[in-house]
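Suppose you are handed only two things: the residues of a chain and a line of SMILES describing ISJ. What would the bound structure be? This form records exactly that question and the answer produced for it, so the two can be stored side by side and reused later without any lookup.

QUESTION INPUTS
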Amino acid sequence: MANVQIEELRKKLDEINDNLLDLINERAEIVQQIGRVKKTQGMNRFDPVRERKMLDMISEKNEGPFETSTLQHIFKEIFKASLELQEDDHRKALLVSRKRQPENTVFDINGETIGRSGTQTFIAGPCAVESYEQVAEVAKAVKKQGLKLLRGGAFKPRTSPYDFQGLGEEGLKILKKVADEYDLAVISEIVNPADIEKAVDYIDVIQIGARNMQNFELLKAAGSVDKPVLLKRGLSATIQEFINAAEYIVSRGNNRVILCERGIRTYEKATRNTLDITSVPILKQETHLPVFVDVTHSTGRRDLLLPAAKAGLAIGADGIMVEVHPDPAVALSDSAQQLDINQFNKFMDEIKNSGLYNKTDKTSPSTI
Ligand SMILES: C=C(O[C@@H]1C=C(C(=O)O)C=C[C@H]1O)C(=O)O
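ANSWER OUTPUT
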């Protein structure tokens, strides 16, 4: 008996839902008509005074059972959705979004194709540039492994002002010299918008570090030059904030952007940061940009670099970044997590034997 009653009531609800659906869409069409008239008269589509009046009317007429505040909230959502409907669909979709560009952004750095499905790139090098000899030793190993991209920090934004801050421009000069000698492309972090123009002469990829992910002036400066940019996810940035940071660069005209997941801050202390591994396929779904994983900073642990790199490749990353130092124990930064040359060779051999590297698997998420 009770079930029959529920069925009958549900039937009524279905009818009401149908009516609401029709009414909401009918309403939207009228809002669109008003929008078109406003456009011809050069008027603003959004009218807060008119919206206030309607909310007041709801308040006057409401006899419950809903609270007026609840109804006002629902109606405000309807106003908002109706206004959004009028926006140019293209304006809403970010330039970096898959909606805007379904195919992957693919570009070349020093003969290395970045962002093509089934092709992965490794970036290796020391955390910080300490000397010519140190960088050259790593470059030799990187080259021997058949890699084409060398990293090295010249400007080091450190947590403590008393920690090694990097060699600055001198560091960039060392990187350039080594890169030329070993025919490698170099990637290095720039922290000051004023240094971007100068850096372009020395480096092949501008890195924007996690701490600067929302340094909007820096993002704009990086968007105004003709150099690929590797943008790291901020320490506590959501995926949406990360995507918007990339949009800052691309909206300035530079579409060669690599997104780099580097772990986020959580309560977990077993690793330096928590590698948000599923951000990789999410970023690949939401954007058309190449997505890399920095296994060094996300884990902060040498023993986790290999499994994290394999996980990154397995889940669809376009590349992996890993730190290598000739003698990590004496490194001026990140000594607990850099690989020495032997460890790096083993790491690369394991990766190459894993079946995960540069396989063309049409079912992998990177083939979207
Ligand atoms: C429809 C209009 O334009 C906008 C949309 C509104 C709505 O959805 O009801 C209300 C006010 C404006 O923000 C209007 O001015 O009446």
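WHAT STANDS OUT: The mean pLDDT is 93. The CA atoms of residues 59 and 68 lie 6 Å apart.
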